[in-house]
């Protein structure tokens, strides 16, 4: 059984649970010959700690280690102290492939300096659903050709700097009403509609993408029973055979509720590999990680996963690792990359319905959420006090916060002539009470651009809340820059 365990561990990526490689985890990685590790925000303190951690992981796993993170840009970043990249939709709004290529390269330089060789980005989901709870600004847009052109340029930049990309979430998470972290979504479209829309970016990217991540979504027209992650018809039939894809296929996190609440972790992992995946992302507990490895080993032993199929998967993973060696490198370009990111955020800034700038020193009322929240995928938003401080460079600011938008009484705001700015700092759309009664003079949509559709008045879209995004909004308010972006999804009627 040990030989089978050695093979099984090389098909698994795990989550880790601290900020350093302790002796027990080191032994676990070596004993089971685990090939990959995915690090999250809770594994990171600062650059010295993180480079030490990834270096220890490489030593424990070996020269073909795959050390990964989600550094998409916008709200989905894990290393928050490096130059903050724009979200995909901000780059889609800028519609400049050269800029996207430079941003992708800068993201790769930053994460490679920290010891990573695999980035789970860019997102190729096309977002044409204004109520999508998890994609939104993570998508480059809704037009297949334009969005894919920008995404591939981003990927080219990353590859140039030695970091493998992993496009996601095949075959498309853009038109869902459910977050697969919380439940199992269905996309009930015809095969023809999927071919024309969802499939298009992945088909175009197939010759170029070193890796693709699966979606935990059921597409009844393709497979009425299994989510894509466990569907032979989708992973092998569509991606391998129809698209001719020969790169690495990795599952999304198998602890997500769409999978974990319906299948045993071991059986789910085996199902995914039999369907055509090369690597299973076992990011649950240590116990479920061990259970996953043992289940895969048993499947190899019992020829459920034939040895030839295992060797083909190991060859693809080895090729990916050899082409993108792990190990930290010097980061000399950080100042230039910060300037680049600031320029890129400004390029995507989008004005909607002819917003007016209050004059300098105007009396302004800022309305914003009292707390900052994460949706479980993204980092937490910008605090209301930070927005107030930024606007105070220009205005006399009165800050009013709310805990719950559906119980906040907009009409109770003082009628004292202040120019009222609403700053939206969460991804969730507003509810019916807010939509019916809130009437800001200016809406700063600092995260989800679709929130600008919740109110009829003028808005400024940043597509993210990182410091350079907020700085771009302040620069626009000061009259120092224009807002040249064009929102790349339907429903926005332009400036």
Reconstruct the topology from this structure.
Elements: H1 2-9, E1 12-15, H2 23-31, E2 36-38, H3 47-61, E3 66-69, H4 88-94, H5 97-113, E4 118-119, H6 144-160, E5 164-165, E6 167-170, H7 191-196, H8 199-205, E7 211-214, H9 232-242, E8 248-250, H10 257-260, H11 265-275, E9 280-282, H12 286-301, H13 307-323, H14 334-348, E10 350-352, E11 363-369, H15 384-391, E12 396-402, E13 419-424, H16 432-437, E14 442-445, E15 459-461, H17 467-477
Parallel strand pairs: 1-2, 1-9, 2-3, 3-4, 4-5, 6-7, 7-8, 11-12, 11-13, 13-14, 14-15
Antiparallel strand pairs: 10-15
Helix pairs in contact: 1-12, 4-14, 5-6, 5-14, 6-8, 11-12, 14-17
Beta-strand fraction estimate: 5-15%
Mean of all residue-level pLDDT scores: 94
Q: Could you give a short account of the major beta sheet? A: 6 strands, parallel
Low-confidence stretches: none
Alpha-beta content class: alpha/beta
- Rg estimate, integer Å: 23 Å
Cα end-to-end separation:
65 Å
Number of strands: 15
Fraction of residues in H or I helices: 25-40%
Strand order of the largest sheet: 5-4-3-2-1-9
Number of helices: 17
Shape: globular
Q: In short, what is this structure?
A:
With 495 residues, the chain is an alpha/beta fold. Helices cover 37% and strands 12% of the residues.
Would you kindly provide a written description of the structure presented here, covering whatever features stand out?
With 495 residues, the protein is of the alpha/beta class. Helix content is 37%, strand content 12%. It has helices at residues 2-9, 23-31, 47-61, 88-94, 97-113, 144-160, 191-196, 199-205, 232-242, 257-260, 265-275, 286-301, 307-323, 334-348, 384-391, 432-437, 467-477, and strands spanning 12-15, 36-38, 66-69, 118-119, 164-165, 167-170, 211-214, 248-250, 280-282, 350-352, 363-369, 396-402, 419-424, 442-445, 459-461.
